[in-house]
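A quick aside before the break. I want you to see a complete sequence-to-structure record at least once, exactly as it would be stored in a machine-readable document. Don't worry about memorizing anything.
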Amino acid sequence: MMGTTDESMYNYDLSAKGSLDLFLRSLFSATFTDRLSGGPLHVYRLRLHGQSWEPICHRDVLKAYADYYDDYDEEKTLFLIFNSAKIFDPVYSDDLKSFFRAYGEIDIAHRVAHIPIAKNTGFYFHRLVCKTAEDATRIHDHVKKGGGPHGLDLSKVPVLLREFPDGVFFHTMQPTLRLYVNRCSKRLLQVIRDSVSTK
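That is the input. The structure line, written in tokens, reads:
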């Protein structure tokens, strides 16, 4: 995946550290427009004439999200998790956008982390970036009407799931799959990062 960035961030006299930061920001920014993103960000230096590649940095996308969190509008963003072990067919970004369209417009929907985010589960972390903060609020309000994690003993579910008290069944695609949604926040992102690091 190639990175994307604002031209104003580039300076010909950038230091090596500043260049690396720009590259990582660029790659992370691209995850907001690539529905298949997720996992580590890799930065390489291409040697003269392209004869060899030198690895410079490998950073997990969750760490990058924490590092550059303030660059993005949390009011327009929702966090979503679901248990991939419960699905019959893959859930694509367009499926999620279509499912929530009656309540709000979503610009981007994609998986953020490429590995499960809770120990011994199939829960994956997705990000929904809505067109407006109002769209995010309407979608979250709809999810809250779906109630809590039906039939689950919260004392036995992963700690992470307790951070997503509201969910709706994905009835238009897979009736038994429950989508858990919460508002984006730096604290919740840290909880998600901790759940991965303690696997």
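Two observations worth writing down. The chain has five helices and seven strands. The chain has a mean pLDDT of 80. We'll return to this after the break.
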